[in-house]
């Protein structure tokens, strides 16, 4: 079904800037934007708020199978509650990499991700978009930046939102999250064999967006 739909996958570690870039590229190309991390965050927030034990894979799976998040423009609603900000809290970020390691949770969220493919096109950001969810995408990108640069970016983002942040703590949390995402058995964080690697450590946002669009013009259109 998705084979004839133009898809760009954008995978990479935490705070590599994927979300910002994916949204900007989707906007420029008139594509739909799938923030797959948001789905894992929603599943985690839901589990935390219902008091589900994060070591109980069966309970996590059962609750993920019942999720019906609503994406309303920039807002995300869960059971009628606006969870847009709550899913970005640092405690949710840390817990999400544990919940995302559960096979049943990943299976439950798979269909939601596949259903995001729209005829106009899709930019999908996450950890396994190119390797598992959209393996036939004509353009796959693995975006990286050094841990120091990523921690600094996340730090500035939190301060800009008026949240308290500690750079040293953030760095440790990011590294822990990446380690869990890379080492898990199911859909670990890694570049697809045919992904292009984009190191954004020394690049500005506009430059990264332009690079992705140029790659799409080069590879994506030919691949369809
Ligand atoms: O991208 P974001 O930081 O919002 O993702 C939060 C967490 O969700 C990641 O650390 C990872 O554990 C999980 N995730 C995943 N697969 C995806 C997207 C996110 O396992 N495709």
In words, what does this structure look like?
By secondary structure, the protein is an alpha/beta fold. The chain has helices spanning 18-29, 36-49, 57-65, 90-99, 103-114, 129-133, 147-160, 167-183, 205-223, and strands at residues 7-11, 32-35, 70-72, 75-78, 81-82, 122-126, 139-144, 196-199. Strands 2-6-1-7-8 form a 5-stranded parallel β-sheet. It has a 3-stranded antiparallel β-sheet with strand order 3-4-5, with no helix packed on it. A hairpin with a 2-residue loop joins strand 3 (70-72) and strand 4. Helix 2 packs across helix 4 (90-99), helix 2 (36-49) packs across helix 5 (103-114) and helix 4 runs parallel beside helix 8 (167-183). The radius of gyration is 17 Å and the shape is globular. The model has no long low-confidence stretch (mean pLDDT 93). Bound molecules: cytidine-5'-monophosphate. The site of cytidine-5'-monophosphate (C5P) has 14 residues, from helix 2, helix 4 and helix 8.
Secondary structure: elements and pairs:
Layout: E1 7-11, H1 18-29, E2 32-35, H2 36-49, H3 57-65, E3 70-72, E4 75-78, E5 81-82, H4 90-99, H5 103-114, E6 122-126, H6 129-133, E7 139-144, H7 147-160, H8 167-183, E8 196-199, H9 205-223
Parallel strand pairs: 1-6, 1-7, 2-6, 7-8
Antiparallel strand pairs: 3-4, 4-5
Helix pairs in contact: 1-9, 2-4, 2-5, 3-5, 4-8, 7-8
């Amino acid at each position: 079904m998705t084979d004839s739909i133009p898809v760009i996958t954008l995978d990479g570690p935490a705070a590599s800037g994927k979300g910002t870039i994916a949204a900007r590229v989707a906007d420029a190309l008139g594509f739909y934007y799938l923030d797959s991390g948001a789905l894992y965050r929603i599943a985690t927030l839901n589990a935390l708020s219902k008091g589900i034990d994060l070591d109980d894979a069966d309970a996590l799976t059962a609750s993920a199978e019942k999720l019906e998040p609503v994406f309303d423009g920039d807002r995300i609603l869960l059971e009628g509650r606006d969870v847009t900000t709550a899913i970005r809290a640092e405690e949710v970020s840390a817990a999400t990499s544990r919940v995302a390691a559960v096979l049943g949770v990943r299976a439950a969220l798979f269909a939601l991700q596949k259903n995001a493919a729209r005829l106009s096109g899709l930019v999908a950001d996450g950890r396994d978009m190119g390797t598992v969810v959209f393996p036939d995408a004509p353009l796959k990108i693995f975006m990286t930046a050094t841990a120091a640069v990523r921690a600094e970016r996340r730090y500035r983002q939190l301060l800009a939102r008026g949240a308290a942040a500690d750079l040293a703590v953030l760095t440790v949390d990011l590294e822990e999250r990446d380690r869990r995402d890379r080492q898990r058995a199911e859909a670990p964080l890694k570049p697809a064999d045919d992904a292009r690697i984009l190191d954004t450590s020394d690049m500005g946002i506009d430059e990264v967006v332009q690079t992705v669009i140029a790659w799409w013009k080069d590879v994506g259109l030919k691949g369809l």
